[in-house]
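Late entry, evening session. Most of the bench is empty. Finally got around to the prediction I had been postponing all week. Sequence below, unchanged from the version circulated by S.P.
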Amino acid sequence: MKIYTAENDGFLKLSFTGELDHHGAKTAMKTIDGLIDDALPRNLIMDLSELNFMDSSGIALILRVSRRMSDIGGKAWVENPLGQPLRVLNASGIDRVVKVFEKAR
């Protein structure tokens, strides 16, 4: 899995590609913690449009990122989940805690 970043005016966008599993989530969280520490964004977007697999470790990562952003007074949300990752998000009910914006079809 790879994470591409873009930063603009208080927004930090993280675009995930590949597979987000236990191994990927552990590495990704270390990377994301560093990015948050460096940028101190007000808003963090997790774009999942290029993610083709996610398990419960991805849910845990999303929740941790959301909590981390809340701790620094910011907000985090998920955008553009598709296919299997979207099904995992829907099954988890995560949208009760973190906003999930689906891509218009």
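Two things to note before I forget:
The chain has a mean pLDDT of 95.
The chain has one domain: 2-101.
Will write this up properly tomorrow.
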